[in-house]
Amino acid sequence: MIGGLFVYNHKGEVLISRVYRDDIGRNAVDAFRVNVIHARQQVRSPVNMIARTSFFHVKRSNIWLCAVSKKNLNAALVFQFLYKMLEVMGSYFGKINEENIKNNFVLIYELLDELLDYGYPQNTDTGVLKTFITQQGVKSQTKEETTKITNQVTGQIAWRREGIKYRRNELFLDVVESVNLLMSPQGQVLSAHVSGRVLMKSYLSGMPECKFGINDKVIVESRRAADSSSAAGATKSGHIAIDDCQFHQCVKLSKFDTEHAISFIPPDGEFELMRYRNTKDISLPFRVIPLVREIGRTKMEVKVVVKSNFKAVTKVEVRIPTPLNTSGVQVICMKGKARYKASDNAIVWKIKRMGGMKEWQLSAEIDLLNATDKAKKWTRPPISMNFEVPFAASGFKVRYLKVFESKLNYSDHDVIKWVRYIGKSGLYETRC
Amino acid sequence: KMQGVAASVSDTLGNIRPWLHKVTTQSKMTDSKYFTTTRKGEIFELKAELNSDRKDKRKEAVKKVIASMTVGKDVSTLFPDVVNCMQADNLELKKLVYLYLMNYAKTQPDKAIMAVNTFVRDCEDPNPLIRALAVRTIGCIRVDEITAYLCDPLRKCLKDEDPYVRKTAAVCVAKLHDIDPLLVEEQGFLDMLKDLLADSNPMVVANAVAAMTEIGESAQTEAAARMLTWSGHLVNKLLTALNECTEWGQVFILDAVANYTPSEENEAQSMIERVCPRLAHANAAVVLSAVKVIMKLLELLTPGSDFVQSTVKKLSAPLVTLLSSEHEIQYVALRNINLIVQKRPEILKHELKVFFVKYNDPIYVKLEKLDILIRLTSAANIANVLAELKEYATEVDVDFVRKAVRAIGRCAIKVESAAERCVSTLLDLIQTKVNYVVQEAIVVIKDIFRKYPNKYESVIGTLCENLDTLDEPEARASMIWIIGEYAERIDNADELLESFLDGFADEQTSVQLQLLTAVVKLFLKRPTDTQELVQRVLSLATQEADNPDLRDRGYIYWRLLSTDPAAAKQVVLAEKPLISEETDLLEPSLLGELVCHIGSLASVYHRPPSAFVDGRVAAQRKGLPSRAPTLAEATGAADAGAEVVPTDNAQNAKPAVSVIPTQDSLIGDLLDIDMSGGGGGSGITQQSAAPAVPSQSNAMDLLGDGLDSLLGLGGPAPQQPPQQQPAVGGGSGVDALADIFGGLSATPSAQAGFTPQLESWLPAQRGKGMQIDGRFLRRGAQLQMELQVRNNAMQQLSGFAIQFNKNSFGLAPAQPLSLNPLAPMQTATTLLPLHTKGQVQKMEPLLNLQVAVKNNIDVFYFSCLVPIHVLFTEEGGMDKRVFLSTWKDIPADSESQTSLGSYSHSPDSVSNLLQSCNVFTIARRSVDGIEMLYQSMKLCNGILVLAELKISGGAFTLSLKSRHAEVYSGVQESYLKILKSSN
What we know:
The complex is a heterodimer. By secondary structure, chain A is α+β, with helices and mostly antiparallel strands. Chain A folds into 3 domains: 4-124, Beta-Lactamase (2-Layer Sandwich), CATH 3.30.450; 170-226 and 238-282 and 393-430, Mu homology domain, subdomain B (Immunoglobulin-like, Sandwich), CATH 2.60.40.1170; 286-389, Sandwich (Immunoglobulin-like). Chain A has helices at 27-37, 75-93, 98-103, 105-115, 126-132, 143-154, 217-226, 253-259; strands spanning 4-8, 14-19, 47-50, 53-60, 63-69, 116-117, 120-121, 170-183, 189-203, 209-214, 244-247, 262-264, 269-278, 286-295, 299-308, 313-321, 326-333, 337-341, 346-354, 359-368, 383-386, 388-389, 398-404, 416-430. In chain A, the strands form 5 sheets. In chain A, strands 8, 9, 11, 13, 16, 18, 19, 21, 22 and 24 form a 10-stranded mixed β-sheet that branches. In chain A, strands 2-1-5-4-3 form a 5-stranded antiparallel β-sheet. The longest helix of chain A has 19 residues, at 75-93. In chain A, 41% of the residues are buried. Chain B has a 5-stranded antiparallel β-sheet. A 5-stranded antiparallel β-sheet of chain B has the order 9-13-12-11-10, sandwiched between helices. The termini of chain B are far apart. Classes of the chains: A alpha+beta, B alpha+beta. At the A-B interface, strand 2, strand 4, helix 2, helix 3 and helix 4 of A face helix 4, helix 6, helix 8, helix 10 and helix 13 of B.
């Protein structure tokens, strides 16, 4: 398992160093700095072997987080853990940067003691960790209190503590979808998929059992087969076919596998309930039609047409990349504002409001410096779009979320529920 | 002295000072201020603060100490003072002190003892968090004196009422095992650990599983290892606990379950059903570990069954989903998918598009995606792939672009119907004139020419236009190859090649070799006008080059051309073998092993753990389980096996004596022969002696002299070991000496169980009068080659020397060949001891050995087959249990069964006979008059072969199992020969 964990700043100075295993020597800290951070040629892999020691790293802004091992350990687990650790640190002290890490080094050591034992990840749930690792230090605890903590940390429902009380039982569901598209210059969809996330904020008392229903074909149909009475409300047309979904630790996976039911006891506060992926019948909110013409060596003409396929949308941004040797750009657009941003090597076209089923055009003339270095050619990065639409491009719908708490006296009807759909651009690109 | 330490410490910290100062300037008082202490004398101040009466001051001081420790400062001198702070009831402070202890205890073992009492006391603290902290820390203090004190508290903690303490204690057992494995095994901790698997708390179970897995990999005693193996019952319980564990616990359990192989198909099926839900987990490690378990279990199920198909279907979506995770996790996933598509291509065959490269993917993701894309390419999707590849070939990253171009070539080779489109795409890319693209394209076009000869030579013109821009050796070599290969269709081939010749000396060896061959090809195709050119290249290669390979190849060509141009044509312009469609495929047994390591580092490196992990753990190789064949299948296999074996075994067994260089490529290999004469250690002298070869116009003399001087160097070999039988010289029975030695050489065949017949290796007409018969023997662990040389020529033969080409088992003469000069019509026999430490190169057929024998007339080449049984070592025996488990470990589909025919041997006599050839009978069973002998043998290079010999009413049937199926035919032949020899 993980033999040691190091945190460096961008210069390669050690901010945190925690060694869990005897086979990792102090020189490992330097080996990573010399061979990766200070490497003359940028390393091309997140996993590197230096002198029979393996180094796994992730980088967040200027901070390098590195796990070390000499064993054949589970690599997926290591990266998953490093990301988890970033998340935990983030929730304790906000942004991951040098200053915050130095300010909280005692806390980080304390966390590392709890997150990993002998290199094996233990409980990494922030909510639970916060019950007994605080920056203030846990002082005089009664026996009951500590037992409660230890049971919580190791327990079956390690993500939720008992005895939570809210005057108003409320929950929020956000369905956030990233729409990803790769389109050829001729308008052929090369690949398109939606990666969706269902984010839940729960403010519920006690230990509530929740049941979550969505309009996935498989789920709906198997539900209907199991319970014919519930079929009454569902119409067949509104169903989508989800390729794959993944659930938060709290969801009972075996139940999902056998009964296609999503049931869980939620953590308190905000968490990601579910992640899904869909590739069929995606409503692509926009289409981009590019036309690039190189006129000699010093001039280029670009024409871009954007079509909106659905409802009216606000705040749309189109980024049209320009060659590195661009000396000047003249842009004309019918709608919105377009500006050449030399620092980004792109024309950024912003449209405040765009009606549904509309088509707008931008044309630009790009002057180029006579490229002396012929080898350094421009590779025409794709045109990308940023947008946010108030609907789920996959057609994903929340059908219900029922809350049951048998011990306390509130019922499903008393819970106030909010559902929101957001469609965002993921990598929404058109090659040109 | 202290002062000195402090001063040097602060000096070494000079480079850290800038940022420390920056932090100091902040008005906010935060913990980062502790990073600022770099003044001289600070150690003294810290010492004082650590001993302060005020609690808060002590705590601050400890924080400073930890900060110093982090930045690499040596604060070990403060050890006693820090330990003093340990008794504090403040948990945060205690944690810091413990952290310090873990770091420095090893360097100060005597002082660490001071802390023991506190640890022992803390292990009994009413607060479970403190008890757990103590037991967690004490396991990390690797000091022998402390370890002894650890046992009692640990035993208590393993039975603690609080689950938090128990889960910590479980891991502590693994820590202790790492320090002192025998102590753990003797003190019964393994039993206690095993009890924890039935704990009511899921996290305790998970940690116990993790600890057990780790200990199991390095268990010291047989008993411990047995105790730690997973039983079906236990696995069943763990799978139940899976639902309640944390995500990490699920990974530990799945990784442990992957080590268990169920005995029945039903069990495997039900395990798969229970693991499948994990595929929907949000944690990629859980998903990959579940995939690993399922992939392994699938091996045990009937291929093609509905269940297998539906399971395979279930694997695809979760794997694709992994590609929407963070880049680093994508990378791990892609490396694993690369293995999975090699093992079961059906899983992802419809998911081509997800492997399309995105513009912003990091390079490591791009390269991996590209690799998988090619693996998934088929005639059905080639259009899409090709369009993508063309796009990639215009990107900026040089490595990526090169790989994309190469991929286009691979597409052409893989999908014949698309070859033309691929070629035209490559031509388009060549038109871009981007230097590295052009060069890469030429390299792959060469491969396409190899695959589809005489189909696309119309593009040669375009290629030739780019001749001047090629500056990479591989591209130049490829281009030269193309010119040589198609010399008859390129009008100015001679000019083109000549232009390369001008800078001959500056080229890399690969290019020089290619150039040499190309010019010779050209000469053979257009002899009239290229004589001058070929003379020039041959003299360049033989006289001016210092590379022995090049020189030797030059000599060979020269000699071939001057003695027998027709033969030269046959050799140089021979038809080339086809190149295979799939490249970069992992070898099946390695692939199987890596599939057992899905998710782990081995799967990321695509190397077995033994390649990068030290110690015992690495030595244990994992392999995919194999299905127990059903009755019907078993008989089916037997039938198939019987068909494979040719009826006329005798003919098959006859050694194939043929001229070696039948292929162009082989010449290169032949020339790799180390001509140092087997004396050993004269490799360097050979090199330095080479330039002394006199340059003469007569190629034949040149070669002869060259070889003479080369071999001459090897000749005066070191003293011959007295125990080894020297040359047996003399005439054919007339010579008195021959009588003595003749008698000597006859004895072994009497005592040994089996001695093969002499085989004709070099007939007299091919050996210019020298006739060689021979055989291979193994006597007293010594491998020998017996040579019977007969002089059928009219003159005396002398100056004998022998050389082996690189071969599959590294066979090489252990001493030079010693044969006295042989008068006409005389025969001499000699025994040449061999060793197996020579250079290894896999031969086809596997046991082929190419030999060069020199005498005063010429050098003669012949090849012979080494009977595999002489390579069986004396260490081939094994324990029955080892035999059984090894037999099971080897997949059933690598078993090979043949019928050996009928013999009158009794099982005992067979056993003895085979034993004399180092085939060891491990066990014997007799059922209904059918005798089964279980036998094992070990080749000199460590390959194990297991055999089951069935004797039913005189008919012998042999089943073989080995991880290296290549050796089967050889072993079968050896069995046949041995059985026939004394029948």
